[in-house]
Amino acid sequence: MIELKELTTKVLKMFDINDVSDLGTALMKNLNNKEKLCQFTEIVENNLTVDWLQQIYQYYQADRKEKKQDYTPLTLAKLVSELSNCESKKTIDMCSGTGTLTIQKWAINPNQEFLLLEIDENVIPYLLFNLVIRNITGYVYQTDILQSETKNIWKLKKGDKFSECTHFESAI
Predict the structure, then answer these.
(1) Which tens digits make up the pLDDT trace of 75-115?
(2) Which of 170, 161, 169, 141 is nearest to 32 (CA)?
(3) Cα 77 to Cα 101: distance, rounded to the nearest angstrom
(4) Strand partners, 32
(5) pTM over 0.90
(6) Which label site among 24, 96, 119, 139 has the fewest CB atoms less than 10 Å from its CB?
């Protein structure tokens, strides 16, 4: 398994950026860039059952003090995905963060459609990139589920190797 420092260094180099604070913007700009998507899968040696971006986000960018952001450990995500109905055609992931739980559900059944809800605009690029490289079908809503307010919606459509991501609505 690749170490966090090595992973971070390779990902920053891949996007030609020097600081992790610029990674979200780089991820968002490259959601439909097949060359960058392929490079990322090569960095992680095509092991897409792990949420590699969660490791980077949680260590460098999570707001643990004010927002109490802490992300689902891999072992818990695996357990929950195995306990939930794997035969379902749709999965809803509220407060999806970088997508760890969704990735584990996808690893069991990659043909599901996913509906993901996340409030934090800073983690959305990580979530979308994670979904695109796994060729996941579904929707991501940047929404406050307690207030029922949605700011942005992205649609993910299965492609040949990677999902096509479209920001098709905003400010609902």
Answers:
(1) 666 666 666 766 778 888 888 899 998 998 998 889 999 99
(2) 161
(3) 5
(4) none
(5) no
(6) 139
Kindly report the backbone phi and psi dihedral angles of residue 60, in degrees, each rounded to the nearest multiple of 5, phi listed first: -100, -25
Look up residue 52 and give its two tokens.
């590699």
Take residue 123 and report the two structure tokens written for it: 């983690």
91 with 115: CB under 8 angstroms?
yes
* Phi, psi of 122, deg, nearest 5: -75, -30
Of the candidates 142, 164, 161, the one whose C-alpha atom is nearest the C-alpha of residue 152 is: 142
- Both tokens of 51, joined, read 């949420």
* Residue 127 CA to its chain's centroid (Å): 2
DSSP letter, residue 8: H
Contact 47, 76 (CB under 8 A): no
| Measured distance CA(167)–CA(125) in Å, rounded | 12
CA distance linking residue 172 with residue 152, whole number of Å: 7
